[in-house]
């Protein structure tokens, strides 16, 4: 069934069961991995109108959809991506105009995520200039299940950083978190 022919409302089990909790920069990255929905993932055509994609996301209660073209996954569209695109006030915007190309979404293996801190995750976001990370069981495998997604905006929200802050400030926060305590204390004592 295509996203444009959805006939029945989603079940409540498809929606997140809890609100994201607060985290710290040194916390393990596993705490911000959003698992994929247990029942199904949703996809939408790259030709779909942005307003329609926004309605579908709201109706489903999900934050992202896979984007398809000619029976291939070509990207990822999020509610935030749609809002940014719509703010440009262009006419006849399609999902393809606001999606993140699949080739630009980094994969992280689960074992690596277990070793990363949130500071590391922010560094990955900054160095790859992306807003999403896909977490898979094994990044080295040719065939592997998706364990979940990490969204930049969700990480910042859980850290208590307002989304209006620019990426430069996000990186500064990440750098502060990885400084040795003695450096941070010395900096605080400066007049």
Summarize the helices and strands and which ones pair or pack.
Elements: E1 43-45, H1 50-60, E2 64-69, E3 72-78, H2 79-87, H3 95-98, E4 100-101, E5 107-109, H4 110-115, H5 118-128, E6 132-136, E7 146-151, H6 152-159, H7 167-178, H8 181-189
Parallel strand pairs: 1-2, 5-6
Antiparallel strand pairs: 2-3, 3-4, 6-7
Description:
Mean pLDDT is 75; it is low at 1-18 and 179-191. Helices cover 37% and strands 17% of the residues. It has a single domain (25-189), classed as CBS-domain (Roll). It has 191 residues and is an alpha/beta fold. Strand 2 (64-69) and strand 3 form a beta hairpin.
Tally of helical segments: 8
Tally the beta strands.
7
CATH architecture: Roll
Q: How much helicity do the residues have?
A: 25-40%
Spans of 5+ residues with little confidence (pLDDT < 50)?
Answer: 1-18, 179-191
What order do the SSEs take from the amino end to the carboxyl end, as H and E? EHEEHHEEHHEEHHH
Strand order of the largest sheet: 1-2-3-4
Number of domains: 1
CATH fold annotation: CBS-domain
- Radius of gyration based on Cα positions: 18 Å
Overall spatial form: globular
Range of strand content: 15-25%
What's the rounded overall pLDDT mean?
75
